[in-house]
Amino acid sequence: MALDFLFIFKAIIIAIVEGITEFIPVSSTGHMIIVGELINFKDSEFIKMFEIVIQLGAILAVVVLYWNKIWTMIKSFFKFEQKGIKFWLVIIVGTIPAVIFGLALDDIIDKYLFSYKTVAVGFIVGGILLILIENNFRKKTRRLKYSNNLNIEEITYGQAIKVGLFQCLAMWPGMSRSASTIMGGWISGLSTPLAAEFSFFLAIPAMIGASGLKLRKFDYSTITNTEVISLVLGFIVAFIVALVVIDGFIAFLKKKPMRVFAIYRIFAGVVLVALMLTKVIK
Questions:
Q1: Can you tell me where the transmembrane regions are (predicted)?
Q2: Residues sharing a CB contact under 8 Å with residue 104, sequence separation 6 or more, in sequence order
Q3: Which of 265, 253, 98, 90 is nearest to 186 (CA)?
Q4: What is Dmax (Cα atoms) for the chain?
């Protein structure tokens, strides 16, 4: 069977979008829905599965970048050291809300929330929340001491559960898992870099679990050579792009506020509404 190079090229474009948007607060799902519409890469069971696989590629970037810390905490856990035990317990506690709501709402979300209308709402509402919560956070930092020197194992269980609950907002396409968890971090009293780093670690179990639910439903007997190549290249491209983006995003957060992402989200949401009203996209 001949390879469909145009299909493979489109798959690479979607993988680039995923790698860029997965860990910055703009919603990777929302952007993949929109770009998929614009390049006609949509509406098949394979594409739904493909988007899950490239998300795993982006998650692998977190594992690689933070491998020294992950490996140190694994060894610490099996040595029954307080530091390692607390680190993994905080990750587990922060993941629990997503597990509960994800299992309960997975089919409902797939059926009702993957549309341009819901993405536009997610973009705009998420952008407004980012501005409001960050402004409140910065006012508090003038009165209270938010330490940039804390580590994940020093996060309290109460803070972890709050961040985990906020992470559930990301089940609404367009809201962004990164934005949701960082906002939860601010409300919980975490500094911006720590909230972002915690969001990266929470992404590992949350997205692997969500991916597992989706991947087991796919009929692999129908897959073609073109689709196999698209999967492999998409995974690799998403991984490489995410590697670059994560490093740059953390450096950005140490110096700048997130308002620029909020403004972009609101603008993108308004443009999306305009495109729907003018029937450019349906």
A1: 7-26, 46-67, 87-105, 111-133, 185-208, 228-250, 262-281
A2: none
A3: 253
A4: 66
Q: How far is CA 91 from CA 65, 70, 101, 253, in A?
A: 17, 12, 17, 22
32 vs 25: CA distance, rounded Å: 14
Q: What are the tens digits of pLDDT across the range 154-167?
A: 999 999 999 999 99
pLDDT reading at 138 higher than 80:
no
Are 183 and 135 spatial neighbours (Cβ–Cβ below 8 Å)?
A: no
Which residues make Cβ contacts (< 8 Å) with residue 47, sequence separation at least 6?
36, 41
How far apart are alpha carbons 28 and 6 in whole angstroms?
Answer: 22
Q: What is the C-alpha radius of gyration for the chain, rounded to an integer number of angstroms?
A: 19
Query: Distance between CA 115 and CA 117 in Å, rounded?
Result: 5
The pLDDT tens digits for 76-121 are 999 999 999 999 999 999 999 998 998 898 888 888 888 999 999 9
CA–CA gap between residue 88 and residue 79 (Å, rounded): 13
Q: What is the rounded distance in angstroms from the CA atom of residue 145 to the CA atom of residue 165?
A: 24
* CA 155 to mean position of chain CA atoms: 21
Residues 6+ apart with CB under 8 A from 45: 218, 219
Q: Measured between alpha carbons, how far is 194 from 139 in angstroms, rounded to an integer?
A: 18
